[in-house]
Amino acid sequence: MSTRGDFTSEVLITREQLAQRVKELGKQITEDYKGEQLLLVGILKGSVPFMADLMREIDLDLAIDFMSVSSYGSSTKSSGVVRIIKDLDTGIEGKNVLIVEDIIDTGLTLHYLKNYLSGRQPKSLKICSILDKPSRRKVEIEGDYIGFTVEDKYIVGYGLDMDQHYRNLPYISWIRVKE
Ligand code: IMP
Ligand code: MG
Q1: According to CATH, what is the number of the domain 14-151?
Q2: Which ligand is nearest to the Cα of residue 71, counting in written order?
Q3: How many CB atoms lie within 10 A of CB 8?
Q4: Environment class of residue 158 by beta-carbon count within 10 Å: exposed (0-12), middle (13-18) or buried (19+)?
Q5: With 70 as the cut, is the pLDDT of residue 79 above it?
Q6: Which residues pair with 59 in a beta bridge?
Q7: N or C: which end of the chain has fewer CB within 10 A?
Q8: Ligand 1 binding pocket includes 72 (Cβ within 6 Å)
């Protein structure tokens, strides 16, 4: 347990646990797409550390691209509005696309993105998220590859932010505003 200013935080998933799980996910993805090419689509900015680690654990002919969407303002509540700020640089028709996310929370972002991208006729379209918070789901959506399932607590670190802070923590922590 540590305290930074007005917040209390506690480490939930250590850097070693993350590394181990990312390795397992990479192995599974490598097996599942054997003999195929793969396009990893990272959702900025939260997916950055996970994307960087995951891509190095995948032994395939692989390319990467990024999208930026906004579903959160600077608060910790989902607005439910998904806006595309940066679209893909490359076409995805006929490609195996794997969306890489930091967390599936309400599911609104990925639900929208999956529909949006499936309209471009990829060969396959799946989701890989390091975290899943199923208790918060507002729409029906499931990740195909999930690192860890977490409780309904606000999480930071390993790409996840609170008002743009804490993305650089090498571990995953939950954070609570002090009473
Ligand atoms: P959604 O509610 O599934 O659409 O989540 C969209 C985005 O909200 C995620 O990609 C995260 O960037 C952010 N988010 C959701 N839950 C958390 C959290 O516990 N900590 C930090 N960011 C979160
Ligand atoms: Mg975010």
Answers
A1: 3.40.50.2020
A2: 1
A3: 14
A4: buried
A5: no
A6: none
A7: C
A8: yes
Which residue is catalytic, options 53, 102, 105, 132? Answer: 105
144-159: pLDDT as tens digits: 999 999 999 999 999 9
Report the pLDDT value the prediction gives residue 82, as an integer from 0 to 100: 84
Ligand that comes closest to the CA of residue 131: 1
Is 96 a pocket residue for ligand 1 (Cβ < 6 Å)?
Answer: no
- Per-domain residue ranges for the chain? 14-151
105 catalytic residue (yes or no) = yes
pLDDT in tens, 16-66: 999 999 999 999 999 999 999 999 999 999 999 999 999 999 999 999 999
pLDDT at 178: 74
Ligand 1: does its nearest atom lie under 6 Å from the Cβ of 129? no
Is there a cis peptide before residue 45, judged by omega within 30 degrees of 0? yes
Mutate to test the pocket of ligand 1, among 12, 50, 103 (most ligand atoms within 8 A of CB): 103
The pTM assigned to this predicted structure is 0.93
